[in-house]
Amino acid sequence: MACFLVSATVGIGVAVARHIVKNHENKLELEGKTQLPEKFGSDVKWSQKLAYLELTLFSGSFVLAIEHILHGEIVPLPPFLTAANNPADTAEMLTEMGTVGVAMLAILLVAWGAGVAIVDYIKFKKRKEGLKEAIVK
User: Fold this and answer.
1) pLDDT bracket for residue 85 (50, 70, 90)
2) Over 60: is that where the pLDDT of 36 sits?
3) What pTM value is reported for the model?
4) CA pair distance 48, 132, nearest whole angstrom
């Protein structure tokens, strides 16, 4: 009924975190204290990695919200969520948010983390091989 709110709420937190990280990265860049290129995971900035997560969270929440609108669970009049009209339905909605919403969020975070780790590992291996070839030449 409102499982999309879990991802949307975390998406807002990720958006705030991304802006903080981006400001910190810009500050380090201005000071000339960037990461060493030999360090694992340094090809893609963390602000960009968080941007991918933010986009995933908000796009998934948007699609789920549209689905809930089509099924009449969200209406254009307050309280907007039809489950908020009845206390019994509200309890069911909160249970769904705590089970389905949190489970979807956990799966999404694991998938994002695995994707980030795989991409960082592939880029690290390619860069390391390039450095070995440059040393051999």
Assistant:
1) confident
2) no
3) 0.83
4) 28
CB 36 within 8 A of CB 42: yes
The Cα angle at residue 109 between residues 105 and 110, in degrees rounded to 5: 120
Concatenating the DSSP letter of every residue in 9-63 gives HHHHHHHHHHHHHHHHHHHHHHHT-PPPTTSTT-SS-HHHHHHHHHHHHHHHHHH
19: pLDDT strictly greater than 90 = yes
Q: Is there a contact between 1 and 98 (Cβ–Cβ < 8 Å)?
A: no
In angstroms, how far is CA 106 from the centroid of its own chain? 11
- C-alpha radius of gyration, the chain, whole number: 21
Cα 35-41-42 angle, rounded to 5 deg: 25
